[in-house]
Amino acid sequence: MAQQDTDQQRAGVLPVDDEGYVIDTEDCEEREAAWRERGTSRPITVVGNPVLHKECKDVTDFGDELQQLVADMFASQRTAEGVGLAANQIGVDLKVFVYDCPDDEGVRHTGVVCNPKLLELPAEKRRLDDSNEGCLSVPTAYAPLARPDYAEVTGQDEKGNPIRVRGTGYFARCLQHETDHLYGYLYIDRLSKRERKDALRQMAENEPRYPVVAND
Question: Which residues cross the membrane (predicted)?
Fold first, then answer.
């Protein structure tokens, strides 16, 4: 077991806790900067772009192209001042998202998840939080949306190793939001028709603070 842990560290996997969840709260500043400095910021795709409205393809190649994509995603996320970014938000049809997000206690979490699957919580463990939610692909718009205040995602890291990520509060919302993206759902798809219309009105009335890809 100790040897396996050593091998994982050499492979670039985040350390894990006693329950097998990644420890994504250590060296966040250094890890985020290392990714971002290798990347190129790309414009953000917005609601209406077809790549946002279909399930993305599974990541099967964990080579150099994926590493560059992840670097570009961290760079793009920083430019847009976001806390999470899915690949299709920069026009890439692959199941991968990055995050650099605080939880409700202000603890920073930074990492990469490929091929995420969200754990379905039993009813007795579902405590809903109806805080406001926004999205880089629906710029300047916000709406309250009830989501569970705990989330757990399984998937793979950028090297293809299996991982488990969990979060509470705002970070739980981030994990659910980004996983949704990769299966073709925006947060506004979970709103009522009236709330969705209001969010799109907000978007139309304001200018995004970061570069976006205009829909033809």
Answer: none
Q: Consecutive sets of 10 residues in the chain, 216 residues long: mean pLDDT of each?
A: 38 82 97 97 97 98 97 98 98 98 96 97 87 97 96 97 96 98 98 97 96 87
Catalytic residue among 55, 81, 178, 195: 178
Name, in order, each residue with C-beta under 8 angstroms of 96's C-beta and a sequence gap of 6 or more. Answer: 59, 66, 69, 70, 73, 86, 87, 112, 113, 114, 115, 158, 182
Feature table: binding site: 135, 177, 181
Closest CA to 79 of 114, 36, 28: 36
Q: Is 133 a catalytic residue?
A: no
pTM of the model: 0.93
What secondary structure letter does DSSP report for 149? S
> What are the residues facing 100 on neighbouring strands?
110
DSSP 81: T
According to DSSP, residue 94 is labeled B
